Protein backbone atom coordinates (compact mmCIF):
# COMPACT_ATOMS: atom_id res chain seq x y z
CA UNK A 1 0.00 0.00 0.00
CA UNK A 2 1.59 3.27 -1.06
CA UNK A 3 -0.74 5.43 1.00
CA UNK A 4 -3.46 5.14 3.63
CA UNK A 5 -6.40 7.53 3.67
CA UNK A 6 -6.77 9.37 6.98
CA UNK A 7 -9.15 12.31 6.45
CA UNK A 8 -8.82 15.26 8.83
CA UNK A 9 -10.23 14.41 12.25
CA UNK A 10 -10.11 10.64 11.63
CA UNK A 11 -7.44 8.04 12.31
CA UNK A 12 -5.81 5.12 10.56
CA UNK A 13 -4.29 2.50 12.86
CA UNK A 14 -1.10 0.74 11.83
CA UNK A 15 -1.18 -2.67 13.51
CA UNK A 16 -0.83 -6.41 12.90
CA UNK A 17 -3.66 -7.82 10.77
CA UNK A 18 -4.43 -4.24 9.73
CA UNK A 19 -1.84 -1.94 8.21
CA UNK A 20 1.53 -3.14 9.55
CA UNK A 21 4.64 -1.07 8.90
CA UNK A 22 7.34 -2.76 6.84
CA UNK A 23 10.87 -1.42 7.04
CA UNK A 24 12.99 -1.82 3.92
CA UNK A 25 16.56 -0.85 3.08
CA UNK A 26 17.55 -0.80 6.75
CA UNK A 27 20.99 0.49 7.66
CA UNK A 28 21.27 -2.07 10.51
CA UNK A 29 19.25 -5.08 11.70
CA UNK A 30 16.26 -4.57 14.01
CA UNK A 31 16.29 -6.19 17.46
CA UNK A 32 13.08 -7.67 18.85
CA UNK A 33 11.87 -5.73 21.89
CA UNK A 34 13.99 -2.69 21.06
CA UNK A 35 12.54 0.61 19.92
CA UNK A 36 13.33 2.60 16.80
CA UNK A 37 12.28 5.93 15.36
CA UNK A 38 10.11 6.04 12.23
CA UNK A 39 9.18 9.05 10.13
CA UNK A 40 5.64 9.11 8.73
CA UNK A 41 4.96 11.40 5.78
CA UNK A 42 1.54 13.04 5.50
CA UNK A 43 0.36 14.69 2.31
CA UNK A 44 -1.07 17.82 3.94
CA UNK A 45 0.42 17.99 7.43
CA UNK A 46 4.05 17.09 6.71
CA UNK A 47 6.10 14.58 8.66
CA UNK A 48 5.64 13.05 12.10
CA UNK A 49 8.41 11.29 14.01
CA UNK A 50 7.27 8.36 16.17
CA UNK A 51 9.02 5.73 18.27
CA UNK A 52 7.86 2.12 17.87
CA UNK A 53 8.65 -1.21 19.53
CA UNK A 54 10.05 -3.93 17.26
CA UNK A 55 7.78 -7.00 17.30
CA UNK A 56 7.87 -10.22 15.28
CA UNK A 57 5.68 -10.38 12.16
CA UNK A 58 2.08 -11.36 12.92
CA UNK A 59 2.32 -10.71 16.66
CA UNK A 60 -0.82 -9.23 18.19
CA UNK A 61 -0.70 -6.80 21.16
CA UNK A 62 -2.10 -9.52 23.50
CA UNK A 63 0.63 -11.96 22.45
CA UNK A 64 3.29 -9.39 23.33
CA UNK A 65 2.01 -9.13 26.93
CA UNK A 66 1.41 -12.85 27.41
CA UNK A 67 -2.36 -12.38 27.63
CA UNK A 68 -3.40 -14.15 24.45
CA UNK A 69 -6.67 -16.04 24.68
CA UNK A 70 -7.09 -19.47 23.10
Task: Describe the protein.
The chain is mostly beta strands and 70 residues long. Helices cover 7% and strands 23% of the residues. It is built from 1 helix and 2 strands; from the N terminus they run ββα. It has one helix at residues 61-65; strands at 35-42, 46-53. Strands 1-2 form a two-stranded antiparallel ribbon. The longest helix is centred in the C-terminal third of the chain and has 5 residues, at 61-65. It is globular and about 35 Å long. The protein starts with 34 loop residues before the first strand and ends in a 5-residue tail after the last helix.
In short:
By secondary structure, the protein is mainly beta. It is built from 1 helix and 2 strands; from the N terminus they run ββα.
Topology:
Blueprint lengths: L34 E8 L3 E8 L7 H5 L5
Antiparallel strand pairs: 1-2
- The sequence of SSEs as H and E is EEH
Mean pLDDT across residues: 77
Helix content: under 10%
- Strand fraction equals 15-25%
**Distance between the first and last residues' Cα:** 31 Å
Please tally the β strands and state the result. 2
Oligomer: single chain
Largest sheet: 2 strands, antiparallel
Uncertain regions spanning at least 5 consecutive residues: none
Shape descriptor? globular
Number of helices: 1
What structural class results from the helix and strand content?
mainly beta
Radius of gyration: 14 Å
* Widest sheet: strand ordering: 1-2
Q: What structural keywords apply?
A:
globular; single chain; 70 residues; mainly beta; two-stranded antiparallel sheet
Amino acid sequence: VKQIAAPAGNTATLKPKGYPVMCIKLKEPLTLGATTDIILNFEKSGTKNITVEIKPPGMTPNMATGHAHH
